[in-house]
Amino acid sequence: MNQIETKMGNLRLHGMSRTWEALKETRRLHELNLQEGMEILLQAEEEERTNRRFKRLSANAGFRYRASIEELRLDPSRGVDKNLITALATGEYIAQGTAVLISGSTGCGKSFLSSALGHQACLQGYKVAYFNTQKLMLKAKLVRLEGSSIRFFDKLAKADLLILDDFGLTHLDKQQEMDFMEMIEDRHGKRSTIIVSQLPVGSWYDVFTEETVADAVLDRLVHGSYRIEIKGESLRKKQ
Question: Which family is this protein grouped under (predicted)?
Answer without folding.
Answer: Belongs to the IS21/IS1162 putative ATP-binding protein family.
